[in-house]
Automatic annotation (TrEMBL):
Keywords: Coiled coil, Membrane, Protein transport, Transmembrane, Transmembrane helix, Transport. It is found in: Endomembrane system. GO terms for cellular component: cytoplasm; endomembrane system; membrane. Coiled coil: none annotated. This is VAMP713 protein.
Length: 89
């Protein structure tokens, strides 16, 4: 046991091994964080795509309804104009 303690206390290779283990642990934790960030980003992108599709559908509905309203108002104005012309004649 004392030989192993002396070996790990004095041998520089033992320190390198511990340093490499520590570096590998840091790299692993950074990679795990990066993977989690990529997954979160993917979820946010999916949400953004869904919102975009919804907005596109709403804009098409708005365009259709505004055209209908415009035509309704145009015919209403024509009817009023014709009625006024007939009343004034």
């Amino acid at each position: 046991m004392s030989q192993q303690m002396d070996h790990f206390s004095t041998d520089p290779n033992a320190d390198r091994l511990n340093r490499l283990k520590g570096e590998m642990s840091q790299v692993r934790s950074v990679m795990i964080d990066n993977i989690e960030k990529v997954l979160e980003r993917s979820n946010r992108l999916e949400l953004l795509v869904e919102k975009t599709r919804s907005m596109q559908g709403n804009s098409l509905r708005f365009k259709t309804q505004s055209h209908r309203y415009k035509n309704t108002m145009r015919w209403s104005n024509c009817k009023i104009t014709v009625t006024l012309i007939l009343l004034l004649s």
